[in-house]
Amino acid sequence: MGYFDRLKTKWAVQSNAQLFVIFVVFAITGSSSVKVAQPLLHFLGIFPAQFDSIPLGSAFYWFLRLLIVFPVYQVLLLIFGTIFFQFKFFWEFEKKILKRMGFKRFFE
Questions:
Q1: Model confidence over 17-62: pLDDT tens digits?
Q2: Which domain holds residue 96?
């Protein structure tokens, strides 16, 4: 059993075409979330230069950026999943991720 077959079984994906669409959605979402995060950071007034005078300021900036990108990514994943007719898959995927992060009580 190959890697993609194991992935199809794990994710309960029916076909190679569906698996391909899921990969496309992940790719588009990842790129889009990074693009959307930059204007969002500027809107919030968060710029890398603000952290230059702080020890480990660059690391702190990137930590903040990740905190902002993560929820953007989650929302975009559902949006693009819906556009590509894979909402059910991505909704189940989101629930599993959020349960692991401690939001289990919201999905019971």
A1: 999 999 999 999 999 998 988 888 889 888 888 888 888 888 888 8
A2: 17-107
Q: For residue 96, how far is the Cα from the chain centroid?
A: 13
Residue closest to 96 by CA, chosen among 106, 83, 86: 106
CA 78 to chain centre: 9
CA distances to 6, 7, 100 from 31, rounded to whole Å, are: 26, 22, 24
**Total-model pTM:** 0.82
CA dist 51 and 97 (Å) reads 31
- Alpha-carbon distances of 73 from 33, 56, 66, 82, 102, rounded to whole Å: 5, 25, 10, 14, 18
**106 has a pLDDT exceeding 90:** no
Q: Would you say residue 43 lies in a domain?
A: yes
The predicted structure's pLDDT at residue 38: 86
Domain count for the chain? 1
